[in-house]
Amino acid sequence: MLTRKKTIVWCFIVLVICGWMFVLGVLVGRGTAPVNFDVKKLKNDIVSELTAAIEKEKEEKKAQIDVSMNTPVHSDKQDLGFYEDLKSTKELPEHINIKEVPKPEAVSLPAPVPVESSVKEPEPEKTGEKVIAKESVPAKTEEKIVAKEPPLPKKTTGPVFTIQLASGRDEKYADKMVGELIKKGYQAYRSSGEIKGKGIWHRVRVGEFGDRAGAGTILNKLKKDKFNGIIVTR
């Protein structure tokens, strides 16, 4: 499309050419022109050049629009779905063994070495108190909090429902999300399953429910805390 500025420029050029043709016509009519011009042919050539220039500019504009429309748009959203594929996978329960912190051993103070001196020091008063060496307090060790997947109830009369919030290959991300949910008071845990051709996937789930209505109540509460999920069966 022609802009306003380009339209004004083309109009000015056409006016100049028309004025020049008028002057040439007057000179030719009077017979004072130094060279005889074919005015009709010259006019047709100028019009053809102007038409070709305008068509070329229109084609360039159209090509630019087509390129911009064909440019693919990339999405940055990470797919944490595949819920339907994960429902049929065999779950691998997590066995977490937390090593016991060794009890600190009592530190015994070395016996004082007597120093010989010629001057007798006064004997200290005897007291019934005993000196007890302070035990060294070990530094607190940080333990990674990962909730173990709860076992299925022994007696079930129907399907067991649970809420699935996320699923992906990143185990650290799943553990981090479980920790955040536990801090907010939810019974969250990580469940791992192997998908054929895709490897092991880690799912973040919350609770176990005997009916869908109970799971729906907790799901609404999770949505208020900005956690989106779906209700699935174990």
From TrEMBL:
InterPro entries to which the protein is assigned, alphabetical: Cell_div_SPOR-domain, SPOR-like_dom, SPOR-like_sf
Annotated GO CC locations: cell division site; cell septum
GO terms (BP aspect): cytokinetic process
Gene3D superfamilies, per database record: Sporulation related repeat (3.30.70.1070)
Keyword Transmembrane helix attached: yes
Domain SPOR: from-to ranges: 155-234
Regions that span the bilayer: 7-28
SUPFAM superfamilies: Sporulation related repeat
GO MF annotations in UniProt: peptidoglycan binding
Alphabetically ordered keywords of this record: Membrane, Transmembrane, Transmembrane helix
Domain of life assignment: Bacteria
One Pfam match: SPOR
Full protein name: SPOR domain-containing protein
Protein's organism: uncultured Desulfobacterium sp
